[in-house]
Amino acid sequence: MDLKDCLKKLADNGRLAHIKTEVDPYHELAGIAAKFEGGKVLQFDKVKGSEYPVTTGWWWNRDNLACLFDCETEKLSFKFADAVASLRSNPVAPIVVEDAPAHYEYQDEPDLTKIPVPTHALKDGGPYFSNCIVIAKDPDTGVRNTSIHRMMVTGKNRLGLLLDVGRHLRDYYERAEAKGEALEITINNGVHPAYYVAAITPSAACPIDMDELAVASYLLGEPARLAKSRTVDVECIADAQMVMEAEILPYVREPEGPFGEVSGYYAKQEDRWVINVKAISLAKDPVIHMLHPGREVWNSVGLGVESNLYQTISRQVPGLKKVYMTHGGSHYGLILQMDPPKNGMAKNAILAAFAAFPPLQMLRVVNSDVNIYDAEDVERAMVTRCDPAKDVIIIQNAFCHELNPTVVDNIGAKIGFDCTYPVPKPERYDKISYQEVDLANYEIE
Ligand code: MN
Which protein residues have their CB within 5 A of the ion that is ligand 1? Predict the structure, then answer.
């Protein structure tokens, strides 16, 4: 399945909305996307200055993803975890195909100004690719790496890039640069979300000597499909809508940013890494895929982390039912649903969660009679079941995530709210319920 097969599936299930009026990729497109955030997937049919449509919003609603992956919404994070586990148990290597659909039209004089790349937030430094999948090869071992990095368009064939610390691509680049060499890459846009899941697999789960693409193979139910490139010695994704063959230049740094980031705040402009684009290829009638920064990122991080947290916390504390990284909480907020068998165990679960995922800063634990996907239900548990005098844990000066503005030099505070009732359950905590009725049986005007 390629991106367009996925769009058809979304449309068949009432999950795709077309914006038919022409929109400007400079601020207007993202402004409209912001109004739809959390709803249907969008396709902008006419984007000013380009002949290609743009789709966005694939990751801002879990029901849309569940439709694409043929599974129940609440099972998604477990399905992704099974895919990551296959890296060790039964990794399915990608295949390299001839006549890739991604090579339908090949341009060796690239012009990125003809591609509809949106300038998203009002203070962004330029048009941004927010979700391109970068494939590279380890300069020493040749092992393939697949990852996602933000890229700002700075010229017809030039991009600014963020290479964050700890990412394998940064490690590859630094070893290439030490030899005075550019690092060759392909930049892949518009693919089945299985490739996206592979690209966001944390390095803790996929060490530097493993190829993440087996995760995509697992989710696709067949080997991931790659194709040879013409100007670089790195494969591209055969079914991508657009591929850039490119290189990250050694010793070159140019201004990149500001960019409205996942935290909901701007990352500052700084001198960062630079990409030279050597060629662009496009599929027939390509649809360019963009990610609307915000909930889409939180959701993809959340889905990657939840099942891992579930398994880790369950090994430490009994009674855990569900784990949800809330949309509003970015990847700093979490809700645990559990019925602690003994008093005090909800607090142990809070400690286990903080240890398992360092970016977490605010955490609530609720019982199984609370719907953790319903913010009002969770808040009700918080105001009626958490005694602020004895059910709040604060941990100061802990290791946190640098993009949260309350965090300085990765040091911040964490807080946990035990919103569970005492064991055994006192009668005063019985929630009101009503008779189940089927409204189809009633005449209603
Ligand atoms: Mn890797």
Answer: 145, 168
